[in-house]
Amino acid sequence: MGTTTPPRTLAEALRARGDESLAGLLRARPDLLSPVPNDITQLATRAGTRASVVRALEHLDRFALQTAEALAVAPDPAPYDTLLALLTGDGQDDGDGRDDAGAAITAALPAALTTLREQALVWGEDTRLHLVRTARELLAPSPQHPSPTGLGPTVSEATAGMSPGRLQEILAAAGLPATHDPVSAVSALAGLFTDRTRMAELLDTAPVEALSVLDRLVWGPPYGEVTPNPAPPVQWLRDRGLLLPVSTRTVVLPREAALHLRAGRAHRVPEPVPPAIVAAAERDPQAVDRAAAGQGFMALSTVEELLKLWNDGGPAILRAGGLSVRELKRAANALDVSETVAAFWIELAYAAGLLASDGETDERYAPTPASDEWLDLPAQDRWTHLATAWLAATRTAGLIGGQDAKGRALSALGPDLDRSAAPEVRRRVLALYASLPPGTAPDPQTLLARLRWERPLRSSAPGGPAVPGGPTGEASDLRSRIALWTVNDAELLGITGRGALSSQARALLDEGPDAAAARLAPLIPEPLDHVLLQADLTAVAPGPLERPLADMLSVLADVESKGGATVYRFTPGSVRRALDAGRAATDLHAFLATHSRTPVPQPLSYLIDDVARRHGHLRIGAASAYVRCDDEAVLNEILADKRSATLRLRRLAPTVLASQADPGSLLEGLREMGYAPAAESAEGDVLITRAGARRTPPRTPPAPVPEGPPVPDSTLLSAAVRAIRAGDTAARAVHKEGPDTATAGSLPRTAPAETLATVQAAAMTGSAVWIGYVNADGAASQRVIAPVKVEGGFVTAYDHTADEVRTYPLHRITGVAELADEQTP
Questions:
Q1: Span 56-69, average pLDDT
Q2: What does the buried/exposed string (b/e) look like for 584-608 if buried means 16 or more CB atoms within 10 Å of the residue's CB?
Q3: What is the pLDDT of residue 519?
Q4: Is there a cis peptide before residue 35, judged by omega within 30 degrees of 0?
Q5: Residues 6+ positions from 712 with CB-CB distance below 8 Å
Q6: pLDDT tens digit string along 8-39?
Q7: What is the DSSP-derived secondary structure letter of residue 534?
Q8: DSSP conformation letters of 39-107
Q9: SS3 804
Q10: 520 and 512 Cβ atoms separated by less than 8 Å
Q11: Separation in Å, CA 489 to CA 286, 379, 428, 483, 484
C-alpha cells in the first residue's frame, strides 16, 4: 500500500496509491471522471455511489465477481484466509459429488483481488479486506434481493428482534446451555452451526424429511413459506434454529448453517479459469482468406445493387420512422436474399453513410453523395469502409422484426435499434477468433460460454438472482444474442471465411484499414473490361466488371442471374431505358462492339434498331398531359384501343391527344400498351432521364450511441490525476491559527491591508498561503496558492488546487492564512 499504517477508509487507500494506479482506476471506471473530482475524498465518494458500483460490477469477469460475492457474505473486514476458505471450502465432503478446484482457485484469487482493488471495489491489506459498502449492499442477501451466492442472513441478523424466550427455547431444543443474555444466546447458536462436530451430531438426529428440506434450501434461494401448523420435519428445524422466522409465513436457512451444509463454500461451482474455446474445424489459412475475400466481394456487390435499387428514389419513410414490412420484402426479393439478411445490408449501408433520408416533404430513402465517392474507391477500400462501419455501429439489425418494450414492432432503419453494447461485443468476439491459430473455426457455443465468463449475466449468476440494479429482461441476454449475430454477420461480410477469421480481418483489428486493404487487394479478382454476348439476347460477365462498363450494362440490360458469372438479359424495356438516358442507337452498337469478346449477335442489333426506331415517335408533355405524333394513324390506333380508356384521352388536333392523367402515368400506360413514347419539355425537346440521378443532401453517418463515458486517453488521465492530487493537497492543507482566522471548513477572513501584506510577503519568500476566494458568479472556494507577483490590484500565483498559474483580483480574496510548516506543498 506504500504506507506503514493500514488505511482506515477507501479515501486513505486511494491517497496512498501512485499516480499510475490512480490513472488505471480512472481508465477502468471512466464515469468517475465526469466531472473531474476535486480531491481524493470526492473520488472515493463517487466510486462508492450505486450507479458507479453497478457499472463496475457489470465489467468484472466471472471469478472476480464470485470473489466480490464471497466478500459480501464474509465478515467485514475479512482476512485473506477467510475469503479463500469461502471459495475453496473447508475440505469436507458436502455430498455434492464434485472435485474441488482448490489449486486453481488458490492460484487465481490474487489476480481477482488485484482487479477488485484496482477498480476500488475492495480496499485494505490482506489481513483486513473491505468490500465497499455499496457493493456489499448490492450483493449481500435480503428478502427482496437474495444474495447471488444463495446464502441467507447470519444468525445474528435473522434473530434480530426475536424474543429472549424464543431464543431460550431454540437453545434448549438444540442441546445448548441456557443463557439470559440475548447476545450470548445468538453467539452460542452461531457457534453450534460453525462447529462441524457438534453440527454433524445435531443433523444425525434429524428426520430424513427434514434433511430433504435443507437440501432444497442449501444452494438457494434460502427462503421458504410455511403454514401456521407446519409439518413435523419443518417444525423440527424451526425448533432448533435451522430455520429462523422472517415473517409469520416465511422462514430462512441461516448463513452459518448453509455454509456447514455446503462444506464452507460460498459458490456451488467456482469458476477460476475461463472456459476453453473448442475448435470446430481446422482450415487451410489460405483457403480461409480466399473464401472470406470472395464473400467480401459479394458483400460489395450486394450493397452496390441496393444503391442502384434506390438510385432514383427509394421507399417512403413510415410516419414512425423506418421501412415498412412490404418495402423490406421488396428489397429482399430484389437482392435475392431473406428479409433478415436484407435488413442487415440496409442497416450496414445506412451505418456506413451510403443511404439516408432525403428530407423532402414526401420523405424517402436514397443514396447519399458519399455513396458516389465510395463507388469510385478500389474494392479493398470499399470493403474496409463497410467493415469499419460495422465494427463501430450500435444499430443492431438482428433486432428487426422483434418488439420494443412497449410492444411496437422494430423496423429496418427505424428508431430504437441502438444497443450500446454491440461494438464492444463484436470486437470481443473477433478478438476470441483472433486468439486461435490461423484457420481455426471455433465452436460457437464454447465461444458464447467464454463471453459469459468474461462478462457474466447477472440474472444467471450461479446460486441466485440478478444483482439489484443490474440488467434484466432483454438486456440480461442481449450480449449473447449480439454475439451470435456477430458470428453470422462476420461470415456475410467476409470478416470470416468458412468459420475462421481471415488474415485481412486480423490486420483490420490489429493494424487498421490500410493494412487490411493491402492484405485483401491480391485476393480480389481484377475487374474485367469485356462481356460475352450470346445469340439468346444475353450477355455473360465472367467476373467483376469495371465500373463504367458495369454501370452502362446495368442500364442497357437486366440482371438475370448471379454467381461466379453474372448473366444480363436485353429486353425492349431495358433498351428503351438506355435510350431514355440519352443514348443513341449508334452509341449502343458501338458500346457492345467495343466491350464484347464475341461478335454482336444479329437479334440484339435488330432489337436495338427496332426499339430506337419507335422511341420518341410519340411525344408526351404537360397539359395535364398530351400525346403528340406526326402519324395520325398511330393516334387513331391508341384511341381505338380499349386499354387506353383509363388514360381518358381526347383529340385536340389531328396530331395531338390530351389526357387527364399526369405525364408519368401517361408514359407508363402507353408503354404497357406496347408503345415507346418519350417525354418532352415545354420547348418540345426530348427529356433525358439520367439513371441514378436522385441523391440526398450531404449526410453524416449515424453516430454510435456510446456505452457509458468514453475511455479517456493518456493525456486526459495525466491531467486529471494532477488536478485531483492538487485539489487533495489544498483540501487537506493545515493553516496557522491566528486571531482573524475562521473556523475549520469556512473561508479565512482578514482585512484588505493584511491580505495584501501577507501575499506580498509570500511572493518574496516563495511560500504558499491559504486563501478564500469568491469568483464573479459568487461561488466561494478555498485555495492553496504560491504568489509569484503582486501588482495593480492582482496577485499572480501558482494555484496548487488547479495545478496551474492563475491571476486573482485582490478584492475577491476574502482572507489569507499561512500554512503550517509541515503542510507547505
A1: 93
A2: ebeebbebbeebbeeeebeebeebb
A3: 94
A4: yes
A5: 26, 27, 30, 33, 720
A6: 899 999 999 998 999 999 999 999 987 788 78
A7: E
A8: SHHHHHHHHTSHHHHHHHHHTS-HHHHHHHHHHHHS-SSB-HHHHHHHHH--SS--SS-----HHHHHH
A9: strand
A10: no
A11: 21, 19, 14, 10, 9
Stronger pLDDT, 470 or 593, i.e. the higher one: 593
Helix (H, G, I), strand (E, B) or coil at 692: coil
Please give the grid coordinates belonging to residue 507: 490486420
- Helix 379-392 and helix 285-309: axis angle, to 10°? 90
| DSSP three-state, residue 280 | strand
What pLDDT score does 481 carry? 92
d(CA 305, CA 285): 30
Mean pLDDT of 200-222: 89
User: Residue 47: which pLDDT band, with cuts at 50, 70 and 90?
Assistant: very high
pLDDT score, position 804: 74
The DSSP string of 178-190 is P-S-HHHHHHHHH
* Buried-state track 210-247, b at ≥16 Cβ within 10 A, e below 16: beebbeebbbbbbbbebeeebeebbebbbebbbbbbbe
User: What pLDDT is attached to residue 470?
Assistant: 43
Strand order through the sheet with 244-245? 223-225, 250-252, 244-245
Residue 285 has pLDDT above 90, yes or no: yes
Distance CA(627)–CA(618), nearest Å, equals 6
Pairing type for strands 678-679 and 619-621 reads parallel
For residues 684 and 620, give the distance between their C-alpha atoms in angstroms, rounded to a whole number: 9
pLDDT at residue 92 greater than cutoff 80: no
Selection from 13, 151, 32 nearest residue 709 by Cα? 32
Place of cell 398511330: 634
DSSP helix/strand/coil, 292: helix
Q: Which helix (H) or strand (E) holds 540?
A: strand 538-541
- For the chain, the straight-line distance linking the first and the last C-alpha, in angstroms and rounded, comes to 22
Predicted confidence at residue 49, as pLDDT, reads 92
C-alpha of 92 from chain center: 44
> Following CA atoms 251, 255, 256, 259 in sequence, which dihedral angle do they give, to the nearest 10 degrees?
120
**What type of residue sits at position 205?**
T
DSSP secondary structure letter of residue 258: H
Grid coordinates standing for 601?
449477335
What mean pLDDT is predicted for residues 43-59?
91
Query: In this predicted structure, what is the pLDDT of residue 430?
Result: 95
> Per-residue pLDDT for 510 more than 90?
yes
Q: Convert the pLDDT of each residue in 699-755 to its tens digit.
A: 888 888 777 777 788 878 887 887 788 777 766 655 555 544 444 446 778 888 888
Q: Is cis: bond before 701, omega within 30 of 0?
A: no
Q: How far apart are CA 330 and CA 742, in angstroms?
A: 78
Q: Is the pLDDT of residue 144 over 90?
A: no
| Burial class of residue 710 in the structure, from the number of CB atoms within 10 Å of its CB (0-12 exposed, 13-18 middle, 19+ buried) | exposed
List 532's β-bridge partners, or say none. 540
- Taking the model in full, what pTM does it have? 0.75
